[in-house]
Design goal:
Helix content: 40-55%
Distance between the termini: 42 Å
Bound molecules: NADPH dihydro-nicotinamide-adenine-dinucleotide phosphate
Largest sheet: 6 strands, mixed
Shape: globular
């Protein structure tokens, strides 16, 4: 591979859309903490163009890619090998291009969510009943880490129940402990759960909160969406949730895990959270 330090430190995030992505600011802030010189850009890729784009990026000296909606499953199919989290989820959000020309796919979303919930918000999930709303890529990425954190019950509720059933069937083959996982339609949600995680995109697709207010009363509520899109977080807070937080911390923590995989350095995420909140509160970011 040719090129100096600049080329050897080339990273990017790919998605469609991509303008909204905060990954460049986050990774450049991490790099600044260590005095690392990296390039991190965002790439808008056509819906059928993921493989060709990733290949061209690697051929041009790219070292790693982050992958966002809708390409996480494309990335899973693209990579030569992957870690256990990505294999279980069938979804890759971080690619490492290796010096021998191979590629390794990882999924850092689950670690990101768990680190945020446990270490930033102080909520431990051992013995908890957890309701996971959604059965898309983000939900799939967090099922195994949630199961491994010792939850007593993990209920996956989705608008299309068949997708929740498929997710449960898949993880039941990996996770030995029986009776922990269940699949529900949105009309079958129980009256209470200790922890409720919104992994749906209803706030982006123009839908409304798929829950009765009584369900969130007294629960720790986590919305994977953040900023303007964190409608569930605001709604849960207004409906007497014990605590309600948005997914900005997950975003920063999954990025920190990617930084670790790429650079073997653990950034200070709290400092970057503060910078990001300030940036998002600025008038031009509304
Ligand atoms: P997908 O498109 O894979 O899945 C979307 C999910 O939302 C599906 O379960 C879908 O249900 C459900 N859904 C969509 N519209 C509605 C609606 N109107 N009412 C009820 N359910 C609905 O998206 P992802 O799983 O990749 O992402 C989900 C959300 O999580 C996104 O908003 C994304 O921005 C966020 N996210 C945040 C991250 C972070 O770091 N903070 C990381 C990853 C994702 P159905 O199957 O019935 O269509």
């Amino acid at each position: 591979m040719t090129g100096g330090m600049y080329l050897e430190n080339r990273y990017a995030v790919v998605g469609n859309p991509i303008a909204q992505s905060r990954s460049p600011e986050i990774h450049l802030a991490f790099a600044a903490q260590f005095g690392d010189v990296i390039e991190y850009t965002k790439h808008l890729v056509t819906l059928d163009g993921f493989g060709a784009h990733a290949q061209a990026f690697a051929a041009a000296g790219g070292c790693g890619l982050n992958v966002t909606v809708p390409f996480k499953t494309h990335a899973f199919k693209f990579v030569d090998e992957c870690d256990d989290a990505a294999a279980a989820a069938g979804s890759v959000n971080t690619i490492l291009f290796q010096p021998d020309g191979g590629s390794r796919g990882c999924n850092t979303d689950g670690v990101g969510l768990l680190n945020d919930i446990k270490y930033r918000h102080g909520v431990y999930l051992t013995g908890a009943s957890v309701l996971l709303l959604g059965a898309g890529g983000a939900a799939a990425g967090v099922v195994l880490p949630l199961l491994n954190s010792g939850v007593a019950q993990l209920m996956i509720a989705n608008r299309s129940k068949d997708k929740a059933l498929a997710l449960v069937a898949k993880f039941e083959t990996i996770f030995a402990q029986k009776g922990v996982l269940s699949a529900l339609g949105l009309d079958e949600i129980p009256s209470k759960a200790d922890v409720i995680i919104n992994a749906t995109s209803f706030s982006l697709t123009g839908g409304s909160v798929p829950l009765k207010p009584s369900v969130v009363q007294g629960a720790f509520c986590y919305d994977m969406n953040y900023g303007k899109s964190a409608e569930f977080c605001r709604w849960a807070s207004a409906n007497a949730a014990k605590c309600s937080v948005d997914g900005l911390g997950m975003l920063v923590e999954q990025a920190a895990e990617a930084y670790w995989l790429w650079h073997a350095k653990r950034p200070n995420t709290e400092a970057v959270m503060t910078q990001l909140k300030r940036l998002m509160a600025a008038p031009e970011h509304g």
